[in-house]
Amino acid sequence: MKNYIISSLLGLCVLCSSCNDEWKDELYTEMISFKATPGSNGVHDIYMRYQPDGTGKFKLPVIVSGSQNNARDIDVKISVDNDTINDLNIEKYSNRQDLWYHQLPEKYYSFPTGNVCHIPSGKNTETYQIDFNLKGIDLNEKWILPLSIDSDPLYVQNLWKGRNKALLHIHLFNDFSGEYAANAMNIYLGDNNNDPATVSSRELRVVDEKSVFFYAGTWWEEDENRDKYKVLVTFGEGISDEKGVVTGPVEITAMDPDNPTHIKSYGNCYYRRSIENHPTEPFMEKHVTVIYLNYYYTDNTSDPLNPIRYRATGSMAMQRTINTLIPDEDQAIQW
Predict the structure, then answer these.
(1) What is the signed CA dihedral for 6, 10, 16, 19, rounded to 10 degrees?
(2) Residues near 323 by Cβ (< 8 Å), separated by ≥ 6?
(3) Which residues form a coiled coil (predicted)?
C-alpha cells in the first residue's frame, strides 16, 4: 500500500511538472495582437473630437504578448480587412440592411507609416497611427474601419478571440453630443396634455462643432424610416452666471431641408451647462448639459393616409465624467 501511494505521488508530480512546463511554454510564446476589445455590439468604439476641417487622429495599440520583454525589432504588417463586416452584419442584423455597419471609404483615412507598425526592441506595445479626414461624412450611418494583422513568418498572430482584428467603430463628439436621459421629454398627441409617451434615452450625434441631431419623438434608432425624423439642434453662444453655469439658446430645425415630417419648434428652447466636482474623487469632473426643447412633428409614415401631429416638450440631460489627470481628451472622458 505504501509503495502504491509513493508511486501515485510520483506520477502526480510528473503530471504537474508536465502541466507547468506546458503553461511555461505557452506563457513565453510571443504573439502579436491589437488592443481593440470588442464591446457588446461586437465592435471597438473609438472617439474623436469633431474638427471643422474634418481631420482627426487615432493611435491603435499593437501588443507583443508574453511574460518576457520583447527582445527584437518587429515590423507588424497591417491591412484593411474587407471580409469581416459582412459576416458581422449578417450575424447581428440578418437582412435588415438599413441597420448594417458600413465600411469606411478609403477617402476618409490614411496610414502615415504605410501598412507597417514598427515595434522596437525593448517595447511590448507600440501605436499604429491612423489619420482621418471625415469632413462631410453622414453619421446617420454606422461607419467601421476594419483592420487585420497579416500573417508573417517573422511573428505569430494572436488568433485568440479575434485579437488579430480590430473593427474600429467611429464616433465623433463635440461638447453637446452623447447619450441623454430623455424620460423628462413628454410626447403628446397634438395639443393634448394627457397620457404623454416617453423614451428613456436619446443619442445626440455630431453634425458640426455647435450642432447635433436626434430622432424626433419616440422614433427609435432601428426604425427603417428614422432618417426622415432627424431633429437638428444648433447651440447658440451662452452666458455664464456667477456660479459658472452657462445658459444659451438652441435652434430647432429639420435636418432634411424639405422637412417632410413638418418639424417645427415653439416656445423658449435653451440649454444649461455646468461643471461639478466629484464628491469623492477630486481629480474627476462632472460636465452636465441640460437642453429644454419644444417642437412639433408629424408621423406620416406609420399610416401615410392618416398623418398624425405630435408635440414634444420637456428636457433631456447628459453627464460627461472627465478624468482631469489624463491629457488626451478622448481617453479622459468616461464613455
Answers:
(1) -150
(2) 283, 284, 332, 334
(3) none
Mapped onto helix, strand or coil, the DSSP state of residue 238 is: coil
DSSP readout, 104-117?
PPGGGEE-TTTTEE
Q: pLDDT band at residue 327, thresholds of 50, 70 and 90?
A: confident
Q: Are 220 and 243 in contact (CB under 8 A)?
A: no
Residue 238, classified by CB atoms within 10 Å of its CB into exposed (0-12), middle (13-18) or buried (19+), is middle
- Mean pLDDT, range 215-238, rounded to an integer: 92
Domain ranges of the chain: 30-173, 178-332
- Selection from 271, 293, 285 nearest residue 320 by Cα: 285
- Identify the CATH number of the domain defined by range 30-173: 2.60.40.1740
Q: Is the pTM of this model over 0.70?
A: yes
For residues 149 and 76, the answer to whether their CB atoms sit within 8 Å is yes
Residues in the chain, overall count: 335
Q: For the chain, what is the radius of gyration of the CA atoms?
A: 26
State yes or no: pLDDT of 15 exceeds 50.
no
- CA end-to-end distance (rounded Å), the chain: 64
**Residues near 277 by Cβ (< 8 Å), separated by ≥ 6?**
284, 285, 286
Give pLDDT tens digits for 138-197. Answer: 877 899 999 999 999 999 999 888 899 999 999 999 999 999 999 999 999 999 999 999
Q: Domain 178-332 has what CATH class?
A: mainly beta
DSSP SS3 for 7: helix
CB atoms within 10 A of CB 5: 9
CA distance 187 to 189: 7
Contacts with 241 (C-beta within 8 Å, 6 or more apart), sequence order: 247
**Contact status, residue 192 vs residue 323, Cβ threshold 8 Å:** no
Cell numbers placing 149:
494583422
